[in-house]
Write a structure and sequence with these properties.
The protein has 390 residues and is an alpha/beta fold. The protein is 43% helix and 19% strand. The protein has 15 helices and 14 strands. The strands form four sheets. Strands 5-4-3-6-9 form a five-stranded mixed beta sheet, with helices on both faces. A five-stranded mixed beta sheet has the order 12-11-10-13-14, sandwiched between helices. A two-stranded antiparallel sheet has the order 1-2. Helix 6 packs across helix 14, helix 8 packs across helix 10 and helix 10 crosses helix 11. The protein starts with a helix and ends with a helix. The mean pLDDT is 89. The protein binds zinc ion (ZN). Zinc ion (ZN) binds next to helix 7. Zinc ion binds next to helix 7.
């Protein structure tokens, strides 16, 4: 099934050649996948003059995935089929500070409405994927306690959503989901990809060999609170000083701009990443200068990340990425200078292709990877076979 899903096998003959298994074994296994609803047969292989009407395809219509991506200020929710096609999607403002119970209510209500809109039923749901703006321990599905998030580590998001929707509930960090989304949709052949989300906060997701790198406790890519030299007087929300997020995030730039420019301050009590993007687009000189400088500061940290991971693509995403070449220019300038040539040869530093949608695409992909994993598929086939025999 992995060969079919990857597009490497389109016929039974392809499968025989790829696996070396006998025709009868392939026939038996394909039949099992078809009756379990994973694979369907149909269409005509034109390469043989249309004589073999048994093209194998993933049965993407058999089930749907519910995917949600929550940032610090916005959430996006979607119903996606197993081929990754979005059937219904919506987005809206969320306030993470309201706590996890309120957020789970919002996500659940959106899922229900989108299922109705897509004309799909609860029985077709095969899993739920959620991206959250904080590190998540993959062993427990719980948010890792940090000074910045309160109320979350005690709350069991997996159980709360699992009580309402069928299938596994998978939770991961938002930057990880965005990295997986960009990898799946835009660059599925890239051996190593890094995505950095620069918005209200800063975080990175690393995809290596098609899998998200989590580290021991789920905190891989948490670069936001790396302490920078020369910024010891800049206080961070985590209680420390000189953190990357306190110097180069959208929130930090907004704060600095509001403090430096009375007209920015008068317009809003507290400027945020969206205000910075607006000011840069309008050519506000101080906003442009500070955004470029933030890019250089990010570049210092990312040069190390690039040297460790040696990615083919470094994607800059999040709301501040919308300042385009000003942020990216600063990052490129420093990464290509500070990292070794061997680490940056062939490296593309670019904006994400999916923009705001990367997170839900990644969350859906995470669930599809689980649904199609060999142990889950084997268990389901055993179940189907048992009920057929009963
Ligand atoms: Zn900090």
């Amino acid at each position: 099934m992995q060969f079919i899903r990857q597009g490497r096998a389109r016929t039974r003959r392809d499968l025989m050649e790829l696996t070396g298994l006998a025709r009868s074994t392939i026939a038996q296994r394909v039949d099992q996948l078809v009756s379990a609803g994973y694979v369907r047969e149909g269409g005509v292989d034109v390469s043989t003059g249309g004589r073999r009407p048994n093209m194998l395809k993933i049965d993407e219509g058999s089930a749907v995935v519910l995917a949600a991506h929550v940032g610090a200020t916005h959430g996006r929710v979607a119903v996606v089929d197993l081929a990754g096609r979005t059937l219904a999607e919506s987005a809206g403002p969320v306030i993470v500070a309201d706590g996890p119970a309120a957020l789970v209510e919002w996500i659940s209500a959106c899922f229900q409405a989108l299922l109705t809109e897509a004309g799909r039923s609860m029985g077709e749901v095969c899993g739920v994927g959620v991206g959250l703006p904080c590190p998540v321990d993959q062993r427990t599905g719980r948010v890792i306690p940090t000074p910045v998030v309160t109320g979350w580590p005690e709350y069991d998001v997996v159980s709360a959503l699992g009580a309402r929707f069928p299938g596994p509930v998978l939770v991961d960090n938002d930057a990880n989901m965005m990295a997986l989304g960009e990898f799946t949709a835009a660059d599925p052949d890239c051996p190593a990809l890094v995505l950095v989300k620069v918005g209200t906060g800063i975080g990175a997701g690393i995809v290596e060999g098609g899998r998200v790198l989590h580290g021991v406790g789920g905190a891989a890519g948490e670069i936001g609170h790396v302490r920078l030299r020369g910024y010891d007087d800049v206080a961070c929300g985590c209680g420390s000083f000189g953190c990357l997020v306190a110097v180069a995030s959208g929130a930090a730039l907004g704060r600095e701009l509001a403090a430096a420019d009375p007209s920015v301050r008068d317009a809003r009590d507290a400027a945020d990443a969206a205000d910075v993007v607006r000011l840069v687009a309008a050519g506000h000189p101080e906003a442009v200068r500070r955004t470029r400088e933030a890019g250089r500061v990010l570049g210092e940290v990312l040069a190390t990340v690039v040297s460790v991971v040696n990615p083919g693509v470094l994607i800059i995403s999040g709301s501040l990425a919308r300042t385009g070449d000003h942020l990216l220019g600063g990052i490129r300038e420093v990464v290509y200078r500070a990292a070794q040539y061997r680490s940056t040869r062939g490296l593309h530093i670019t904006e994400g292709r999916l923009g705001d949608r990367a997170g839900v695409v990644g969350a859906a992909s995470m669930v599809a990877d689980r649904v199609f994993s060999p142990d889950v598929v084997d268990a389901r086939i055993a179940n189907v076979t048992a009920s057929d025999n009963a």
